[in-house]
Amino acid sequence: MKETIVNTNHSHGPASFQGEDRDYFNTVMAHVIEKNPGEPEFHQAVAEVLGSVIPYVNQNARYKQAKILERLIEPDRIVIFRVTWEDDTGCVQVNRGYRVQFSNAIGPYKGGLRFHPSVSLGTFKFLGFEQNFKNSLTTLPIGAGKGGADFDPKGKSDHEIMRFCQSFMTELARHIGKDVDVPAGDIGVGAREVSYLFGQYKRLNNRFTGVLTGKGIEFGGSLIRTEATGYGCVYFIQNMLQHVNQSIEGKIVVISGSGNVAQYAAEKAIQLGAVVVTLSDSSGFIYEPDGLTQEKLDFVKALKLKGGRIKAYVDQFPSAQYYDGQRPWSIKCAIALPCATQNELNETEAKQLVENGCIAVGEGANMPVTPGATSVFLDAKIAFGPGKAANAGGVAISALEMTQNSMRLHWTRDEVETRLKSIMMSIHEQCVAFGSTPNTTYVNYVDGANIAGFRKVADAMIAFGIL
Ligand code: NDP
Ligand code: 2IT
What is the mean pLDDT of residues 406-430? Predict the structure, then answer.
């Protein structure tokens, strides 16, 4: 189904704008679409933020006069480069690398690297734009960037991955630095890739610095960074449920994806007494009616580490069923956690989730819920945690990895996890402060996250003058 950026049937966001708000929205969006042709994900991410912040900007003339929105949609700079490497058969391969340095208003550029054949410049612009508000919400001093390559890690040998990472870093190295731009992982980039990238940076510069996060514990990584995005997402769900006097215990949870974020969202949900019944990959999903156990999850972790497909789960555990080519949103649940990729949950699926009694959704992935589906959740007034709030735990612990590297110290697991919990709580409080009206319990977390994230960056930009 084709979805439009502005959903005209709904009573919130741009569809509800009148007069000055509507004119400003249309003007900025027309500019974004004209200047960034063929980048629908970037248009979508911008429209979602404008849908929250335009009325706020119109009420605060200093933001409008300083053209903060017009500046925020323009990245500081973009680097695009060729990555040439040799595969195991001796063939020369050519890929395209990117780094979008979106904004360093409140700290060094910070955000992950994605290796996936589907990416293009628009993907990194949407991700970098989102990262700006997310990083602001973490309460920590980090700006926003995103990058990666159209390299497909699937089916590649360890040596091919290493050679690709080394070639990629040979070019990227001149654009990053511990106080300049600090990349990390994202889709297709995990501990192995970060290690190869870090090794090459260190070799080129003869400097051991915290230039990447998600590093191995032996060489400056932080405990809990691997778990942080998934754990943080579940803590955020817990905060949203507590706000309406509910608890996660005993609730059925449907999760998409089976990578880093999905695995640790499942782990924390299980630890807190929830029943996790699905995981997926781009080929299909598994349904485990009685819920995954830690032991079954450990099987998935080992499977994914060696590049396996989620389908193999049902061979190991016959209690589960595999649904080829399908997404898990038809399964009845109280909590849905899309943790795979952008636009993986559409309006029809959102309606079905609400009809099936879903009361909370947390975006573990970046922009997994389409605009139409978001409107369904907001209209139904269920607790909908947008990615820039719900998945901010990962980058927050990356920022704490930077802190530990600067101090040349290593915090304990407990210390880092306690900080993660308190950061997620603070993000929740910011969303409540800017996304609800006094004396009501309902929180529009989309508005809350966008406005709270915007304010800090905007105020810093105003302080710097006209840059
Ligand atoms: P991984 O590479 O570890 O896992 C990605 C998972 O998503 C895999 O199960 C993969 O399946 C699936 N997937 C990827 N692309 C698609 C697609 N086009 N269609 C369907 N399924 C797909 O990545 P992460 O877990 O790190 O990232 C998942 C999401 O979370 C992304 O949106 C990322 O931006 C976001 N995120 C990640 C953070 C982190 O710290 N890692 C922090 C915050 C957000 P398959 O193996 O079949 O490709
Ligand atoms: O989308 C994200 O926030 C990430 N992929 C994590 C970025 C980071 O710098 O840890």
Answer: 98
Question: pLDDT band for position 2 (50/70/90)?
Answer: very low
Q: Give the amino acid at 435.
A: G
User: If you compute the radius of gyration of the chain from its CA atoms, what whole number of angstroms results?
Assistant: 21
For residue 407 the two structure tokens come to: 């101090």
**Separation between Cα atoms, residue 215 and residue 376, nearest integer Å:** 39
Q: What is the pLDDT of residue 439?
A: 87
Q: Which of 110, 125, 134, 146 is catalytic?
A: 146
On the CB side of 191, CA atoms within 13 Å amount to 16
pLDDT confidence of residue 4: 47
Buried b (16+ CB within 10 A) or exposed e, 110-122: bbbbbbbeebebb
Please tell me the residue having the least CA distance from ligand 2 atom 9. 111
From the list 42, 12, 57, the residue with the least C-alpha distance to 451 is: 57
Q: Which pair of tokens denotes residue 193?
A: 């890739």
Q: What is the pLDDT of residue 3?
A: 42
- What six digits make up the tokens of 144? 């926003």
Residue 15's pLDDT is 86
Helix (H) or strand (E) holding 419: helix 413-435
Residue 11 has pLDDT above 70, yes or no: no
Are the beta carbons of 108 and 132 closer than 8 angstroms? Answer: no
Ligand 2, CB cutoff 6 Å, lining residues: 110-112, 184, 186, 213, 366, 394-395, 398
Reading the block at residue 249, the tokens are 């215990």
Rounded Cα–Cα distance for residues 45 and 13 (Å): 13
**The pairing of beta strand 109-115 with beta strand 92-103:** unpaired
Q: Which long-range contacts (CB under 8 A, 24 or more apart) does 170-173 make?
A: 170/200, 170/204, 171/81, 171/82, 171/83, 171/97, 172/79, 172/81, 172/97, 172/99, 172/147, 172/197, 173/200, 173/201, 173/204, 173/205
At 13, the pLDDT band (50, 70, 90 cuts) reads confident
pLDDT at 55 over 50: yes
Residue reference for tokens 């901010």:
392
Assess whether the C-beta atom of 200 lies below 6 angstroms from ligand 1: no
Q: Quick one: which of 365, 370, 383 has its CA closest to 428?
A: 383
For residues 440 and 219, give the distance between their C-alpha atoms in angstroms, rounded to a whole number: 48
2 catalytic, yes or no? Answer: no
Q: State the distance between the two ends of the chain, measured CA to CA, in whole angstroms.
A: 41
